[in-house]
Amino acid sequence: xxxxxxxxxCALLTxxxxxxxxxxxxxxxxxxxxxxxxxxxxxxxxxxxxxQGIAPQIYDDAFRGVTLNPKVxxxxxxxxxxxxxxxxxxxxxxxxxxxxxxxxxLATKGQVMAEIERRYGVDRQVVLGIWGLESNFGSFxxxxxxIRSLATLAYDGRREKFAKEQLIxxxxxxxxxxxxxxxxxxxxxxxxxxxxFIPTSFEAYAVDFDGDGRRDIWADDAHDALASAANYxxxxxxxxxxxxxxxxxxxxxxxxxxxxxxxxxxASHWASKGITLMNGAPVPDYxxxxxxxxxxxxxPALMTFHNFGVIRKYNNATSYALGVANLxxxxxxxxxxxxxxxxxxxxxxxxxxxxxxxxxxxxxxDTDGVDGILGPNSRKAIRNFQRSRGLxxxxxxxxxxxxxxxxxxxxxxxxxxxxxxxxQSALGxxxxxxxxxxxxxxxxxxxxxxxxxxxxxxxxDGLPSVALLRAxxx
Length: 474
Known about the structure:
By secondary structure, the protein is mainly α. Among the domains are: 23-82 and 144-191, Helicase, Ruva Protein, domain 3, CATH 1.10.8.350; 350-410, Muramoyl-pentapeptide Carboxypeptidase, domain 1; 417-471, no CATH class. The protein is 51% helix and 4% strand. The protein has 21 helices and six strands. The protein has helices at residues 2-17, 32-51, 56-63, 70-77, 86-93, 96-108, 110-120, 124-135, 146-156, 160-176, 199-205, 223-235, 267-272, 306-314, 318-331, 350-362, 376-388, 399-410, 417-429, 443-455, 466-471; strands spanning 144-145, 185-186, 245-249, 276-277, 290-292, 301-304. The strands form two sheets. It has a four-stranded antiparallel sheet with strand order 4-3-6-5. It has a two-stranded antiparallel ribbon with strand order 1-2. The longest helix is centred in the first third of the chain and has 20 residues, at 32-51. The chain is globular, with a radius of gyration of 28 Å. The model is unreliable at 1-24 (pLDDT under 50).
């Protein structure tokens, strides 16, 4: 922790002493040429919006005074370099302060939450968990003008088509009268209100819970927003009263290769593999479930049920779904999780992930592209590499994995125990006494290696290596 704080302090001091033009988070001012081009873009987009049914007055009112937002341009262009370990994410997502605030909200809104639960068939704790993670229970959901943010992204963003789609949807929301343009506030990327709906999600799932004729997910009481989140989950198949996950115990020697989010099997399948709950009890049967390793084989094993996938429809990340589900449990009185994480093996940043993909592909484990995003193809490549080296095939992209892959690229990776055992057997077959082929390179094995190396004119260092393995036919 001290090292992290020191690094952060150094970064802060460095940023504060940089010339203004070099400060990492400073927005570049909008040039006159950009401003003029944006005015032309707005006029052209007006015709596009009117062609999709937006009234001229709605468009003109919404875009009156709208200029490019330099903060949005900066944030959209800044690719996050570092990945936050899941244990750090959970530490923040399910902090004592957030839990206590959630319990206060449950106490003051108990009747409303009970009615939302009854009407939509969605457990109140998961709705509270989403509220807590999306806007810290309404304490901050963004103060950016949504029309300005989306227009900036549509003009100058990486996903023009998506931004235009959201912008048209936002204009339809204004046209329907759910909110006034000046009150349509959200994140820099256009997510809105207490539950951070993007405009198309608002159109599809927002509800008028209080019956005032408007779907107001920005209102201080948050009732429409909470009901809208419940409706979203219900429409994606939430199963009332069922948990989202359980931490499980894995038996020795389990095949890690099949532990991934796509491999969903009945509880009986996992039980037949020797998997149990942490206390040794049988795994519960809530339909097909997957077992995932969010921090690799050295971290906890997580069994995910149907409702875990429903939460991931809201935000497609294991850490988010676990944070929402666990925060909801804690609000309802559950004790903190007691888990051991591999804190000495950090996940990779974006540039490192690109390096990993490049090197895996060069070694013959195709990742189907180099983009720094570890999708199914990259995870499969990682597992195949791990399996080829006798490592737990957990698909976890960590600093230690990158080191091992880089060693393989350089031809100096450490040998597995099985490979050393092969060397011992091969030496014994050639008359060099390497001892029992136990995969451990002790003094007897190293002496046999040195004797063999000397006999064939190699430098007699006595060390097992890839070159030695190949020389022995391995």
